Write the structure tokens for this entry.
Amino acid sequence: MKKILLLAALCLSALHAHAQVIQAKGVGTLSYAGGLTQDVKDQAYVKAQLAAVERYFAESGESESQNFDSIEGKVAENLDKFIFNTAILNEQDQASVHKYSIAVRIDLNVARLRTALRGASNTGKAGSAAKSQLVYLFVGREAASVRSFDARVLKRVEAEADASGTARGAQRATAQVETGGSSTQKADDTVYRLLPIANVGTAISSLFSQGGFVMVDPAYVISDRDFKSINKDFSTGNDLQPATQRAIVATLKKAQVPLLVIATLDAGPPSPDPATGMVRVSVGVTGRVLDLSNGLPREVASVPLTQWYGVAPDNATARDQGLKKAAEAAAREVISRLNAAGIQ
């Protein structure tokens, strides 16, 4: 059993090492006059490859798709540099209408694509003096305890009675009763346990630096007192309290740091992975970016809730793997959205 788990772990490591290679599918269709020629086939083949790259960016989100527009020409001219391999899935020649279609699956070099995107972005083009300083607060956590509340039920009773006497002086009454009301369900009261993500910090800093931003370690600009407030706020809620936010913003403004990134990484309970039989832990990540360069802070980008999974032989490793994947994904999404907004 130990040998099987070790082999599965090695396979997962190999997959992680090749995580920069993504498969994508695309279709290219061309109309032609006369007979179908090899030149028409070649043009449709290239068109299908480019469609596969475009589909990858479209599925990655609106901001990624917008960023792709800036390098589409470069990719089209140098497809061999961005695609490792292409497999033909289907070909169809509609001779009656003079149309030829081809479907392909490509192995996409995502690392090279991201490098091209960084070079084409405003941040990548900016000189060192023009690049923005950025501080990030990534908080990892898991539910330590959840207190649930029963629904509170309120009922209303209205009654009408009609009584009449008899000769013997007794009374007989008839009544019509109408009942109705409402129930109120109070949200669960959750207390979170904060998780150490120091091993993720290097990867996040590297991504932001590669994205063209000047990283500022929060430990150098945010006080211990504010860190305690941050930890307290995220231990009981999903966002910083107003007083904590004001204190952090004031500190960063004083230090002339214009961008603040806040992200929460919520690890779920471990469960069996259906594919490998090992432990799987899901991590949900959300985030937002505040621009502090003007008089009042404003939100310039956000990361909608996305789910990532860590799979490993034990709970702790699976959780840490999920946290790392979620943190890196959040950092990439932030960079992508800032580039799309032209913020450098």
In short: Residues 17-115 form a domain with the Thiol Ester Dehydrase; Chain A fold (CATH 3.10.129.140). DSSP finds twelve helices and twelve strands in the chain. The first strand starts at residue 21 and ends at 31.
